[in-house]
Amino acid sequence: MFRTCRKCGKRLSDPESIARGYGPECWAEIVFAVEASLRPEDTEIPGQLTIWDFMKEGEQDKCLTEDDDGIGSTAMREVVNNERTGEDD
After folding, report:
1. Exposed, middle or buried: residue 23 (CB in 10 Å: 0-12, 13-18, 19+)?
2. Those residues with Cβ within 8 angstroms of residue 62's Cβ, 6 or more apart along the chain or in another chain
3. Collapsing DSSP states into helix, strand and coil, what is residue 11?
4. Residue bearing the bigger pLDDT, 37 or 14
5. 8 and 40: one domain?
6. Tally of domains within the chain
7. Are residues 37 and 56 in the same domain?
8. Which of 13, 17, 43 is nearest to 30 (CA)?
């Protein structure tokens, strides 16, 4: 049983919040963060920007152009190589 929120420190008055240890706003943030961490990485989130949103027209084509090894840009080559070897940055 908690009398103050374990996230923000505000006083709790609702019995459910007291038992949980978090107020409704903080609990909603925690639930959202947990749900987001469980989402597959390829799931689109409405309004989320991607790398393509920052590239000028024509730059996207350069990144997708294949080199001799059949892989595009240097950054893309690193991603593919890491996937092949199972390494992360």
Report:
1. buried
2. 73
3. strand
4. 14
5. yes
6. 2
7. no
8. 17
